[in-house]
Amino acid sequence: MSAPRDERSRRVLVTGLSTYWGSRLAQALESFEHIEAIIGVDNRSPTRELERTEFVRVSNQHSLLQRIVRAAEIDTVVDTRLVVNSLMASPRAAHENNVIGTMNILAACTGADSPVRKFVFKSSAHYYGSEQDDPAFFTEEMRRPHSPHSALERDIVEAEQAVSEFAERNPDVTVTVLRCANVLGPDVDTAFTRMFGAPLVLMVLGFDPRLQFVHEDDVVHALEHSAFHLTPGVFNVAADGVLALSEIIGLLGKRPLPVLPPWGTSLVAGPLRQLGFRIPDEVVNQLRFGRGIDNRLLKATGFRYGYTTREAVLNLGEHLRLAPVIRGVEQTYTYEREVEEFLRWSPYVRRERGAERSGVAADREPLGI
Amino acid sequence: MADEQRTSLGAQIPASADEGDEHSGPAGLPARIREGAAPESMRALLPAIEPERRLNDWGRSERIEGVFDRTLLDFFYRYWFRVEVEGIENVPSDRGALLVSNHAGALPPDAPMIAKAIREEHPYPRPLYLTVEHFFKGYPGFSMLIPKIGGVAAHPANVHRLLYDEQQLVLVFPEGRKGTEKLYRDRYRLRRFGRGGFVEAAMRAEAQLVPTCVVGAEEAMPVFGQVDALRRLTGLIYFPITPTFPWLGPLGMLGYLPAKFKIRFLEPIDTVELGGAEAAEDKALVQTLAQEIRARIQESLHEMVASRKSVWFG
Q1: Can you tell me the ipTM of this complex?
Q2: Element (H, E) at A62
Q3: Of the candidates A197, A217, A189, A190, the residue with the CA atom closest to the CA atom of residue A318
Q4: Chain B stretch 123-152, residues whose beta carbon is closer than 8 A to a beta carbon of chain A
Q5: Structure confidence at residue A112 as a pLDDT band (50, 70, 90)
Q6: For A11-358, which CATH class?
Q7: What fold characterizes domain B54-306?
């Protein structure tokens, strides 16, 4: 009952190449030999080393994007740009990126002679929000019961709306939307990895929310899976298992600090941010009501998760204990255009294709191959 | 309230679609069978149980439940309410089943007693999930404790997942808040059964319906009045006056009088025989069935109260 493989995906455009997800995905795609071309666009330089991905610095102007898409005969676009943490960007920048940016990229893929056959959009479970009268598990066809209160959630709903309109107007393009739960992992930087990194984990007094996470590698695999399979529709991406916050704190070996007041939590969250406890608006409600999402639909397409929520938490715990020991040892990468161009195009560089695999695919057998 | 008069047995009450459904939640549709995937295969994709965990995905904790069960519940079940159970064989030992019961008491003792009765008397006991108001998820303290002991918000999607996907036992009080708010003088008069949302949920999930009657809860915590001003002040869903509350503070909520409890499980109704998931669209059938169940419970309650010689000794 798994979804059929899509053999036509050969030339991929990754938007948001310099975001964590864009670069992880590009690294993973590089290891697949049947992928002829990987082109990444962003307005900042990549922060991870890429071997054969072509980086083009471009902002979200649809006319420029459209020229790239047509010139390179892109058949698959994977959009990984979405800002899902309101503390990572100003509300204005987040809106510009999430709503206007999405519309521009969709516009670049539209048109009668567009070569694009597939569009994968990384969305977020913030789409569902977190409210008192939520179901215990959101399924993909559910809408949020109340309109969003934070600007970020409003933008995500709007961006998905634009994607679903695009899907309706372009029936021959396979559109896949992945709604990812909160991500944990040793490498990724999210509101929750920061919260769990502190020795004391803030809780709301009298609440023990049910939370669900997904491991960073599983998100990359899910993006990869959608790029290589025909999976039209919306899919939740979340690991098996919904854990109570107290359970998570226990697994991490941390201490709970139940000092957030049950009423007016958002009012206190502001001053706390000044003190270093950075809780974004879209997470405040989750600390009271939690959120669980049903992940079976993606599994029904043949996708398998590498980690359960509990295992993802344990993996983060190991990393947090190791981090002070290995700090500063890892080398940071800086993008230098001339060096990258030399490495890719100079006839003097010796290339052994496929000899070295990098990215997620190195750890595991690539999916479905 | 007009429905205070509606105690005649089996009366056809027209479908009323005003306020007060027990599923007063959002319009979240119960997850229908996903296109392209057989229900069995979707069931097989449910998360596996991780034996290292102490909680399940609903937040239920066997450990905390066990502590409650051995102490407070055991005391109330055996020595305080001296619960007597009839018809335990009517509780199915497999497939999803929805227990439908009458409801009373400010902090209702009926739900934990029904759960305990199944644990004690049933040959193949299964955990019982209790549907509770969404209110409890938003109230500090309750929000932490209630999921741990098997409470689940009364959202149609939650009931569907439990009954259909997980094939569990679920207890629902269709009277909802109207049952717990009612005063002592209205005891054993069933309130309106919402809009029949519970029947619809059971039909969609192809589960069995087990009408359940509880006698004794009304006298265990008689409610003499409701104070609206204090309700608003405390943010609770109601503020009752009972023999011990609010006089003894929050602990007065546990001040039950030692009434004799009788629980009777009536013969189950299999919704598959009535047409299952497709028939759930038939509003007339749903309403008729809801009224039928209400009538059966009311009739059985009258019979049980009539045969009772003493409130305290049964």
Answers
A1: 0.87
A2: helix A62-71
A3: A197
A4: 134-135, 137-144, 147, 152
A5: confident
A6: alpha beta
A7: Glycerol-3-phosphate (1)-acyltransferase (3.40.1130)
